């Protein structure tokens, strides 16, 4: 049996930030989950639909692993990523790190993990691995999935080898702090403004504030989009609220990130962004409830209401991101404590 000692496991809501927290705390870097999410410029929006999909998907963050790359860049960390089509080599990459006393991040398909309650294919799931024996691998996942968990080596191998949307080829990664890190306060403005610019200037209409506006129009048709609205609409709402999003399609996490930033930097633009995202988080939870109710009752008026709220959210989040994009032209001061 090989186990990395000194692993600091805490409750976390989102898989990628849960894994990043484990890896960074092992390097002596202790940041809150909202701070990890925000410094990784993690917030986004996508309305995703295609002929191959059974039902549309609303996403609230950047694509899998982009957050990790953003965070490593923001904090000046060395990010070592290994991928391979060979299961044997993929396992060797992971075992070598753990044998050397380092936890390792894995991107895989959660469907094959023994402990996962919801058997849905998702190739963008991320966990931290800190040990293994002849039969099982020892992982850290979100609090919802059990925190410190284990899965069979067979299940882990299947999860890492899976193909499909967002899947990676036996991807494993480590983070190393090389030298003195920049103070997180110095990284807040670049991370926030990068996130704001991407949100305000989406390359296609399915993304950012334009994507939310598009969702507001299309959500009204969702009862006609499915043969089983009692299954698909409540499932879509559940994914928005409980599928590792931290609630409100990641808006709760970003609200808390902006609140933490406002304690470190005195900025009216930060305060404006925080106020608007506090309101937006409440409205996203309302949208999820309306979508679920529409599926359960068959009442199309619920979707009309959800569409109207989404239209308000598009405007509200655009205003929030416009305020936050002005941070780079402002000189925030550090509040006295």
UniProtKB/TrEMBL annotation:
Residues 155-324 form the DUF4872 domain. It comes from the Bacteria. Residues 14-142 form the Butirosin biosynthesis protein H N-terminal domain. This is BtrH N-terminal domain-containing protein.
């Amino acid at each position: 049996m090989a186990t990395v000692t000194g692993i600091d496991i805490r409750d976390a809501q989102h898989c990628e930030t849960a894994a990043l927290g484990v890896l960074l705390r092992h390097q002596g870097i202790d940041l809150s989950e909202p701070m990890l999410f925000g410094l990784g410029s993690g917030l986004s929006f996508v309305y995703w639909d295609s002929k191959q999909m059974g039902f549309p998907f609303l996403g609230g963050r950047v694509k899998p692993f982009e957050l990790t790359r953003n965070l490593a860049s923001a904090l000046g960390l060395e990010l070592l990523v290994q991928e391979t089509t060979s299961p044997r080599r993929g396992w060797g990459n992971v075992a070598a790190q753990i044998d050397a006393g380092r936890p390792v991040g894995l991107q895989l398909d959660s469907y094959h993990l023994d402990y996962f309650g919801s058997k849905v294919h998702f190739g963008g799931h991320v966990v931290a691995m800190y040990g293994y024996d002849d039969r099982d691998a020892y992982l850290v996942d979100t609090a919802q999935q059990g925190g410190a968990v284990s899965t069979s080596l067979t299940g882990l191998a299947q999860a890492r080898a899976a193909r499909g949307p967002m899947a990676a080829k036996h991807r494993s990664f480590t983070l190393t702090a090389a030298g003195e890190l920049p103070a997180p306060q110095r990284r807040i403005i670049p991370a926030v403004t990068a996130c704001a610019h991407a949100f305000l200037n989406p390359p296609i209409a399915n993304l950012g504030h334009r994507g939310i506006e598009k969702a507001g129009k299309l959500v009204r048709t969702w009862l006609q989009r499915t043969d089983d609205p009692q299954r698909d609409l409540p499932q879509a709402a559940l994914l928005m609220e409980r599928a590792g999003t931290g609630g409100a399609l990641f808006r709760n996490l970003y609200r808390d990130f902006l609140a933490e930033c406002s304690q470190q930097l005195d900025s009216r633009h930060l305060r404006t962004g925080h106020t608007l995202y506090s309101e937006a988080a409440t409205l996203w939870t309302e949208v999820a409830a309306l979508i679920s109710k529409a599926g359960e009752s068959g009442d199309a008026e619920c979707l009309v209401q959800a569409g109207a709220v989404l239209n308000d959210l598009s405007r509200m989040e655009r205003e929030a991101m416009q305020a936050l994009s002005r941070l780079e032209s402002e000189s925030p001061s550090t509040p006295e404590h």
